[in-house]
Specification:
Elements (H helix, E strand, L loop, with lengths): L1 H20 L1 H24 L3 H29 L1 H20 L4 H29 L5 H5 L1 H23 L7 E2 L2 E2 H7 L2 H13 L4 H6 L3 H12 L5 H13 L18 H15 L2 H14 L4 H25 L5 H23 L3 E3 L2 E3 L4 H17 L2 H11 L6 H52 L13
Antiparallel strand pairs: 1-2, 3-4
Helix pairs in contact: 1-5, 2-5, 2-7, 2-8, 2-9, 2-14, 3-4, 3-5, 3-19, 4-5, 4-8, 4-9, 5-18, 5-19, 7-8, 7-15, 7-18, 11-12, 13-18, 13-19, 14-15, 14-19, 15-17, 16-17, 16-18, 16-19
Pfam family, one: Sugar_tr
Subcellular location: Membrane
Family: Belongs to the major facilitator superfamily. Sugar transporter (TC 2.A.1.1) family.
Length: 466
């Protein structure tokens, strides 16, 4: 009975540690979606068009590319938890800056800085969780990153809705001396400070501690997360053996004959790109504007956005329950197929949008079909690509290149996210239906890619990857 209780306590400790590291994902989700409520207010306040507002929204993603690119190297140099703390401070400072901009240009700079912090956190979370999680639970614990992202999305949309209601339903109305959209952006400082505190109380990764020449501390952490019933000295020797056969990963270690990079690195990059090219973040960055563009009022569009976030959370829990049972690859294939069908259906429905009394609107039943298809797309993404890509990126690379390769793959993900985000406003004005048809085509291509190139990693130790 005592042993069982101790085991439960240790599992609870591992869950707390993984959840704390995943708060970086919460910051990503929160920042990604908070702009959804603020975008109309920014556009009206600074009197900018669709191209300019697309750049303001998307510039955070360029900052994220920079943060993700260098985040892995910082984590190897300074440690996982110390780098998390730096990312939290960067994001907190940028949140205050976004709240109090002088003009659209400095708002853009603050959003880029926020992206740097988010990009760093996007690399740190999956890598840290993969390094502290026991193999039997690694898939489910790795799923915490995406769960945190979707919780951040839902929380920001709920906060946006409450702030908009307090301001009388218009995000340009004043509330406590500032416009409502400014409070939406400033609220980001709260989760940033929470991340800073949590990163200060969780232990350092045992693999980093061994790398840094501190095996005693590494054993203490391994005892916390894997239990002390096994041979901890042997686990440390196993990690040391792997580290002795490698050097600290750099970008040079990723070079190969396949267009300049190792094949496994290209697989990680393409996996990351497909996750974004299906257009998922259009739903979370622009859903309010999207639904308004087809005749739904501002208040109802915010409520629809929040309902999509709830569906996103449900799908994420489904993925967490299945990722260690049926594996990574089957979930990706299921998600690709479901996304292709739902996106194609949405594209068909949006083709019926017509101007009515000066605004665009969808007739019946196409309006209802578009809403159902969009939410089914969110569900299929959440139960597959949303979770599994983060899990795979944390575990698919060999130990000798993991941090550097994860940084490159995450940077590619942010860059792909930026491409989709910055182009959507102009593309949707040109032809919303064809835009969604393009996303459906990428979903089909992602199915073919997974079938050919993705190998199952369920149940394998990180030291076995190669």
């Amino acid at each position: 009975m005592v042993s069982r209780h101790t085991g439960q306590e240790k599992l609870g400790r591992v869950i707390f540690i993984a959840a704390s590291a995943a708060v970086g994902g919460f910051l990503f989700g929160y920042d990604s979606s908070v702009i959804n409520g603020a975008v109309v207010g920014i556009q009206n306040h600074f009197e900018v068009g669709s191209v300019e507002i697309g750049f303001v929204v998307a510039v955070a993603l360029l900052g994220s590319v920079v943060g993700a690119w260098f985040g892995g190297g910082f984590a190897d140099r300074w440690g996982r938890t110390r780098t998390m703390q730096i990312a939290a401070i960067v994001f907190a400072v940028s949140s205050i800056g976004q709240m109090l901009p002088f003009a659209v240009w400095d708002l853009t700079l603050w959003r880029a800085l926020a992206g740097v912090g988010i990009g760093m956190a996007s690399v740190l979370g999956p890598a840290y969780i993969a390094e502290v999680a026991p193999p039997a639970y690694r898939g489910r614990l790795g799923s915490f990153q995406q769960l945190a992202i979707v919780l951040g999305i839902a929380m920001s949309q709920l906060v946006n809705y409450v702030i908009a209601r307090l301001a009388g339903g218009d995000v340009n109305n004043h509330l406590w001396g500032l416009q409502a959209w400014q409070w939406m952006l400033g609220a980001c400082v709260v989760p940033a400070l929470a991340y800073l505190w949590l990163a200060s109380v969780i232990p350092e990764s045992p693999r980093y501690l061994v790398m840094a020449g501190e095996p005693r501390r590494a054993k203490e952490v391994l005892a916390q997360v894997e239990g002390d019933e096994g041979d901890l000295d042997e686990r440390v020797r196993e990690i040391q053996h792997v580290l002795r056969t490698e050097h600290r990963p750099t970008l040079k270690d990723l070079r190969g004959r396949a267009l300049g990079l190792l094949p496994i690195v290209w697989i990680g990059i393409i996996l990351s790109v497909f996750q974004q090219f299906v257009g998922i973040n259009v739903i979370f960055y622009y859903s309010s504007v999207l639904w308004q563009s087809v005749g739904i009022n501002q208040a109802d569009s915010l409520l629809i956005s929040f309902s999509s976030s709830i569906i996103n959370i449900v799908g994420t829990f489904i993925a967490i329950a299945l990722v260690d049972r049926i594996g990574r690859k089957p979930l990706l294939l299921l998600g690709s197929a479901g996304m292709a069908v739902s996106l194609a259906t949405a594209a068909w429905a949006f083709s019926f949008a017509r101007p009515i009394e000066g605004t665009m609107a969808l007739p019946s039943p196409q309006g209802a079909i578009a809403l159902i298809a969009a939410n089914l797309f969110v569900l299929f993404f959440a139960l597959s690509w949303g979770v599994v890509v983060w899990v795979l990126l944390g575990e698919m690379f060999p130990n000798r290149i993991r941090a550097a390769a994860l940084g490159v793959a995450a940077a590619a993900q942010w860059l792909a996210n930026w491409v989709i985000t910055v182009t959507f406003p102009a593309m949707s004005e040109w032809n919303l239906s064809l835009t969604y048809a393009m996303y459906a085509a990428f979903a089909v291509l992602s199915f073919l890619f997974v079938t050919r190139w993705i190998k199952e990693t369920k149940g394998r130790r990180l030291e076995e990857m190669g």
